[in-house]
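Q: Entry one of two.
A:
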Amino acid sequence: MTERTLRHRSIDRPQRLFSLPVVVLLTVCPLLPAEELGGRSRSWEPRVPAAKNLSAAGRLLVNERPGQPWRSAESDESLHSRDLLLALPGVSARIETTPRAVELTLWGNLPEMSDFSGLQSAVILHDSRSFDLDFTLHRGRAIVRNLKKSGSARVWLRVDGAAFEVTLAEPGAAICLGLYSFWPRGTSFAVAPREEDAPVRRLSFFALKGQTDVKEGGTLHALSAPPGRAYLQWDSVNGTEDTARARRQVDPWADFERKPTVWARALADVVENYLTAVKSKEPRTVLFEMLDAASKGNDRAATLAEFSVLGLAAMNDIDRVVQALDDPRRAESRKAAALALRRWIGDAPGREQRLYRYLSERLGFARAQSATILQLLHGTLAADDPGTYETLIAYLRHEKLAVRELAWVHLTRLVPEDLVVPYDPAASPAERAKMYAAWKEAVPSGSLPARKPKKK
């Protein structure tokens, strides 16, 4: 599940960190609350009971209207069409249609859990008499399972830019869906983007059990669980693949029953603490408190920071995430915020411009500084260009902590591990000057990082 090169009009544009566009101040447009997701699809249809929550209180979050705060769904609570339903990164939640026919599992992800590029799972249910389940998948992973005692279950799946008729052929048949967005390689931040400059949306289908038919328009794709043709992919540039691909076993990103790692067990403890606290407090408040606890430096600090920062981003609380990116006290929070903001601006068109305006107009960043941050957040940098390393190393001396942090994140990803020079973006100016000099020596201007020869 990697971001392969797509046939996109902006693919071939050069990737230059310093070739930032001329900055023009745009009309003030604040970051939206809980959120712009499904704005039109949530406004015209009736709000009626459509499903039941099968998960413990706190696992599933509900937003009834844009602008309202998120709340925790109670176990066995009736869920309504038009509401935005959310499972935080690292959390799963199960719901069941009314009447009982299909189970839908929202399956939040974290980078340590799988290589799937999505984080939270967000859906909207729709009122439909023609299908056993009608829903919009806005992002993330979801597992759809036929609960009927006999016969097939029919599902109408909507994503931004396409719709699919999914038929689970027999009782127990199940399919995993994965939807995420990203900026194509070669695109760069623009204050005034062109109409065609938009994130690519990619949807993957993986048959987990039994037979599932996926129909788009007049084309039918027959999927069957491994070792059959289990995998199919659609994206907003190329459309749906011509044929499904065979798999010998379930891909890790889609394997809901995979044995948890040691890190996943540590995450489970953090999630349980969250679920206990959210019974009596608003979800955002709980995440705020967990983020504060991460600063105490205990053995769970990294997990606490990642879960809370990515959770706040999932609920669109970007104000707090930006603060985490610029917080000199919390290295783990800054690292999580860098990931959260990069994914956030790729989830929908226009978000990068809103973040740019927020930095410039609300937080007082110079426009050039805001543009630099967005450029660093925007995507993959050219690993074969010496200018990339020269620019990133220069940013290690930048006056803004957020810029230094993002430059450091890129360097640790691009430079071979044995060449990485220790660096602390929040260190004193004198200490940073020494570390900058060490980086200049390790990767001189005009050169690429060279691996150290192995000792004989």
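Q: Entry two of two.
A:
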Amino acid sequence: MPASFDDLLNQILSHNPNIDRDQLITMVDQKKQESHGLLSDEGAIRLVAQQLSVSALPANSIGDQRITSVHAGLNNSTITGQVVMVGDLREFQRSDGTQGKVMRMKVGDKSGQITCVFWDDMADTLARESLVPGSTVRLLHGYTKHGMGGEVEFHLGSRASFQIMKRSQSSEPLTNNITTPGANFRASDQLRFRLLKLQKSQSEKGPTWALCSSESGLLIAKFWDTHAQDVLSMGEGALLLIQDHWVTERNGMVYVNIGSKSKVTKESADFVAETPVASIGSLHPGPALWTISGKIIERSEPREIETREGRRTRVSNINIEDDTARIRVSLWDTHAEKTESLRIGDHVKITGVKVRENMNGEKEASTVFLTQLEKQQ
């Protein structure tokens, strides 16, 4: 272990005289085992320090965390990465009437990527810097939590700061040192898919969203410009051939975009087969959407929560199992309301769920806004 690790151990021991050194090292090792190798020594000792209510560990005593070692629940974390995507500055009103600002940026290192959320003054500062992909930044004293989609997010509030290590003057191609989520469709390909569910954006100029079934699996498409209204006329169940689309990724989700330069052709042939139902035991985390089915063995009542942005929403959980495994599914927003009509022992089919891995290495699933949930006989 590096010499700085001993300094951190000694600081924790000075705050906890009832714990000896061997016990503390065992606690650190246990945290690393629970993460299935994702936590470094530095990441593990930070979690132990928070568990023992030891705050303000010196930032210069440990190295920056690898992005894959970042887990929800950290209160003072530092990462360095290359900018992958920068969003727009957005203003909103909190439930107490105060104005807030938020801006998102995705960064990556050799181990993976993470969405970083800048709040209020930090969001203003980031907006003024006008960073573009290819820049390298160091983000200090952030805290981490699960976002609405279940992914871990890195948040920067009043205690945080960031340093620009390298400024890119133009959007440089991302290097191979950054791990990007894969998808089985590319921008230059023709793409055939069947429309399963359509939802028009509330904004007049916003897209029409579609949950689709393709040969490569489930995907979410965004129809822009005149296609936004045209696809609503085609209706759910239509089979489409898409040309000249482009692919984007946000918050761990991959989207197919169809815009003014895209060509959309409605086909009559029944080319795309029904999306297969995956066994729960075969699920794995990533940007893909899955269709699962099983028997409900546990359920919770919907509860209302308020997001950091002041939006109120509802969430409930069900545990389902099939012949291979069981999994907890978080039902968000309108899907949470459907829990009230579900009972233990009911069989359900859920089309379009995301899968992630929690800190204990267990797989969990969550709905997205286009998920379809149906009770089976």
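A: Comment on entry two: The helical segments are 3-15, 21-34, 41-51, 121-129, 227-234, 334-337. The CA atoms of residues 5 and 229 lie 59 Å apart.
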